[in-house]
Design brief:
Elements lengths: L1 H10 L4 E5 L4 H12 L7 H6 L6 H4 L5 E8 L8 H5 L4 E4 L8 H20 L4 E4 L7 H7 L4 E2 L5 E2 L7 E8 L18 H5 L5 E3 L2 E2 L5 H7 L15 E3 L3 H4 L24 E2 H5 L3 H7 L9 H15 L4 H8 L7 H26 L1
Parallel strand pairs: 3-10
Antiparallel strand pairs: 1-2, 2-7, 3-11, 4-7, 5-6, 8-9
Keywords: 4Fe-4S, Cobalamin, Cobalt, Cytoplasm, Iron, Iron-sulfur, Metal-binding, Oxidoreductase, Queuosine biosynthesis, tRNA processing
Subcellular location: Cytoplasm
Function: Catalyzes the conversion of epoxyqueuosine (oQ) to queuosine (Q), which is a hypermodified base found in the wobble positions of tRNA(Asp), tRNA(Asn), tRNA(His) and tRNA(Tyr).
C-alpha cells in the first residue's frame, strides 16, 4: 500500500513522497527553547499553538501516520540569482515566489492524492497541510526520509538540494514508516558565513528576527535601521543560504507550469516596481504569495532596496515620488533611503575635493 501511495503521488507531480509517524519529542524540546528565546519575533502564531505543533495526533485527532511530499520550485529560464543580487538597480525576489502561490498548488495536489487514496483504499480520516497551520514540516519530512535538517534549518536532500516545497497529509491509516537519512552537512558552514544579517547564529539555530525573509514578509512594522543596509536589493525573501549550499548543485528545475516566472520578477528594476499603484499591485500579483504582504509593505521593502542602490537620478526620482505617501511606514523608509543617498553624495563630493 505504501508503494502505491508514493506512486500515486509521483503521478500527481510530486518529486518525492515519504511516510513518517507522529513522534516529535526531540523537536518539541527544540521548539520550546526557540520560542523561549523570542527568536520567532512577531510570528505570534508560533507561540500560540505551542507544543501542538510537535504533537500531530493532538493537532488532528485520529492521526496515526503522516505522508510528506516534496515539490521542486526553481522556475525554468529565471535569471541567475547572484547576477540580480549583484545589480543594485534590480529587485531580488526569492525564487520560490516568482510564480503562482505554492499554497494553492500543493493543496490541490495533496487533495488529489487524498481523493485517489480514498477511491482505492476506502474512506479514512485525513487533513491536508501546506505551510498553513502549526506543522513542523521539516521535522516530518526528515522523519519520512526525504532529507535532513541543514545548518540553515531547511530540509536538504542529496538528490534535490533544498529548492523545493513541502506538504503533508495527516491520515488515520497505519502505514509503514520510511527510514530517516543521515546528516551530510559535515564541517561545511557556508550558509552561516554568507547570511547577510547573521540570522543563522549557530548551526541549526535561526534568529528569525534578523532573517531577511522574516523582515520582508512576516514583519509588519518598521525594519530595524541597523539591518536595512544589510538587506541590499532583496525585496521579498532571501536565498543566500541556499545559493551557496553545495548540495544545491543537485537541485532540479521545476516541471510545474504554475511556478513559471510572472511579471518578469526574476529581473525587474526597483524603480519600475516602486511605481506600481495599489491597483497594479493587486492585479499583477493576484494568485501569488507576494500579494499576501500587501502594497504598503511592498513599498516599504523596495524603499529600503532603493536606499541601498547606487546613487542615480532614477533611484532618487522614484523615492521622491513617494515622499508624501499616505502611509507613515512608507514615508519613514523613503526618508531613510533619501538620507542615505544624500550621505553618499556628500561623501563622494568630499572625496573629490580632497
Amino acid at each position: 500500500m505504501e508503494e502505491r501511495i508514493k506512486q500515486w503521488g509521483r503521478e500527481l507531480g510530486f518529486d518525492a513522497v515519504g511516510i513518517t509517524g507522529t513522534q516529535l519529542e526531540e523537536d518539541e524540546a527544540r521548539l520550546l527553547e526557540w520560542l523561549g528565546r523570542g527568536w520567532h519575533g512577531e510570528m505570534d502564531y508560533m507561540a500560540r499553538h505551542g507544543v501542538r505543533r510537535a504533537r500531530p495526533a493532538e493537532l488532528v485527532e485520529g492521526t496515526v501516520s503522516i505522508i510528506t511530499a516534496r515539490l521542486n520550485y526553481t522556475p525554468p529560464a529565471a535569471r541567475d540569482s547572484w547576477e540580480v543580487i549583484g545589480d543594485s538597480e534590480r529587485a531580488f525576489v526569492s525564487r520560490y515566489a516568482l510564480g503562482r502561490d505554492y499554497h494553492k498548488v500543493l493543496r490541490a495536489k495533496l487533495q488529489s492524492l487524498a481523493d485517489r487514496m480514498t477511491a482505492e483504499l476506502g474512506a479514512f480520516k485525513y487533513r491536508v497541510f501546506t505551510d498553513s497551520a502549526p506543522v513542523m514540516e521539516v521535522s516530518l519530512a526528515a522523519g519520512g526520509g526525504l532529507g535532513w535538517r541543514g545548518k540553515h534549518t531547511l530540509l536538504l536532500s542529496r538528490e534535490a538540494g533544498s529548492l523545493f516545497f513541502l506538504g503533508e497529509l495527516f491520515v488515520s491509516l497505519d502505514l509503514a514508516r520510511d527510514v530517516p537519512v543521515t546528516n551530510h552537512c559535515g564541517t561545511c558552514q557556508r550558509c552561516i558565513d554568507v547570511c547577510p544579517t547573521q540570522a543563522i547564529v549557530a548551526p541549526y539555530q535561526l534568529d528569525a528576527r534578523r532573517c531577511i525573509s522574516y523582515l520582508t514578509i512576516e514583519h509588519h512594522g518598521a525594519i530595524p535601521e541597523p539591518l536595512r543596509p544589510l538587506m541590499g536589493n532583496r525585496i521579498y525573501g532571501c536565498d543566500d543560504c541556499q545559493l551557496v549550499c553545495p548540495w544545491n548543485k543537485y537541485a532540479h528545475v521545476s516541471t510545474t507550469p504554475d511556478f513559471a516566472v510572472r511579471n518578469g520578477l526574476d529581473d525587474a528594476h526597483l524603480a519600475e516596481l516602486f511605481a506600481w499603484t495599489q491597483e497594479e499591485f493587486d492585479r499583477r500579483l493576484e494568485g501569488t504569495a507576494i500579494r499576501r504582504i500587501g502594497h504598503e509593505r511592498w513599498l516599504r521593502n523596495i524603499a529600503v532596496a532603493l536606499g541601498n542602490a547606487a546613487p542615480s537620478p532614477a533611484a532618487r526620482a522614484a523615492l521622491q515620488s513617494r515622499r508624501e505617501h499616505p502611509s507613515t511606514l512608507v514615508r519613514e523608509h523613503v526618508a531613510w533611503a533619501l538620507a542615505r543617498h544624500e550621505e553618499r553624495n556628500d561623501s563622494r563630493d568630499a572625496a573629490s575635493n580632497a
